[in-house]
């Protein structure tokens, strides 16, 4: 009897390590699920492949993939000024596996421009990190005989000029409209859908000046086909220091294209923090800065709070430009 009790006691003691090991095995899948990311992540881009926004999304995806060890796949969902992509992200689970490449359109412009954009950029999305900022460039046809903003404004006050931009309601359009409003000039607006159509009229002088993303229009300035009137950032761009900033003539003037990564509301804080840390690490590397410089962009590593403050400020400021200029989506 005593022998049987001793064997039973030994068996009881022996079960404890086995039960602990079994518990660890059962907990392992839950821990694996909690560790983000443990499978591929989608980054929605609201513009076609090959454009500036798409390229920046791919740079961000490559950074995250290298830093976090999982594929970050770009999914292009163009249409309605990127509203389609934004709405698709909001319909996805808020688990960190579907993110959105934010732009001025998604983060600040669309709710002012469209009767029903389907979302509020300040409450429906959580900012992760800014990625980069890119100035636009106002360029004129050489036949005008002007070389800076002051001369262009003076000419526009003597006769009616025509101007083009590459996206109704986009940063190039708002840059042109704010220039007109602050300078106090009237000019004939000629809208285009993209850089290529505008260039077919600007290069031969059928329109007088135009606004485009720096990377798209700068080669024409460097070739002498166009004259760089000014970049739309507050300071000159380091890659073309000979081109003045419009703000040198019109203090306070600024309309740039700024991009970042956002997640749907409800995404776990640890996902936001880990993605932010990975992006900041990658954006501070010299090779990333060099790639962005080729696009005419400057890296903007920072905190989610800094990104949200930028979104809120630009939402108010660009909304005011849209109202003053009477811009409507087409």
UniProtKB/TrEMBL annotation:
Keywords: Signal. Transmembrane segments: none annotated. This is Tripartite tricarboxylate transporter substrate binding protein. The keyword Cytoplasm does not apply. Belongs to the UPF0065 (bug) family. The keyword Ion transport does not apply. InterPro entries: BUG (IPR005064), Bug_dom1 (IPR042100). PANTHER family: BLR1237 PROTEIN, TRICARBOXYLATE-BINDING PROTEIN.
């Amino acid at each position: 009897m005593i022998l049987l009790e001793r064997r039973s006691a030994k068996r009881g003691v022996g079960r404890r390590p086995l039960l602990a090991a079994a518990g660890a095995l059962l907990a392992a899948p839950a821990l694996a699920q909690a560790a983000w990311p443990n499978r591929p992540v989608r980054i929605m881009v609201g513009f076609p492949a090959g454009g500036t926004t798409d390229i920046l999304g791919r740079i961000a995806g490559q950074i995250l993939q290298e830093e976090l060890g999982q594929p970050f796949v770009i999914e292009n969902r163009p249409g309605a000024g990127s509203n389609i992509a934004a709405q698709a992200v909001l319909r996805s689970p808020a688990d960190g596996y579907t993110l959105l490449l934010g732009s001025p359109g998604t983060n600040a412009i669309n709710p002012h421009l469209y009767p029903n954009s389907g979302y509020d950029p300040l409450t429906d999305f959580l900012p992760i990190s800014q990625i980069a900022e890119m100035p636009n460039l106002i360029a004129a046809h050489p036949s005008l005989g002007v070389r800076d903003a002051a001369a262009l404004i003076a000419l526009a006050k003597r006769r009616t000029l025509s101007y083009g931009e590459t996206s109704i309601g986009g940063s190039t359009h708002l840059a042109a409209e704010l220039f007109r409003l602050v300078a106090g000039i009237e000019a004939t607006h000629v809208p285009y859908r993209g850089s290529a159509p505008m260039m077919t009229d600007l290069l031969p002088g059928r329109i007088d000046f135009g606004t485009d993303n720096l990377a798209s229009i700068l080669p024409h300035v460097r070739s002498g086909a166009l004259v760089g009137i000014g970049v739309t950032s507050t300071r000159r761009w380091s890659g073309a220091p000979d081109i003045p900033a419009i703000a040198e003539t019109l203090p306070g003037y600024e309309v740039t294209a700024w991009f970042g990564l956002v997640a749907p509301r409800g995404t776990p804080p640890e996902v936001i923090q880990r993605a932010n840390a990975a992006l900041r690490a990658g954006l501070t590397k010299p090779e990333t800065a060099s790639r962005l410089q080729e696009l005419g962009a400057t890296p903007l590593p920072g905190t989610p709070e800094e990104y949200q403050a930028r979104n809120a400020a630009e939402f108010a400021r660009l909304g005011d430009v849209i109202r003053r200029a009477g811009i409507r989506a087409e």
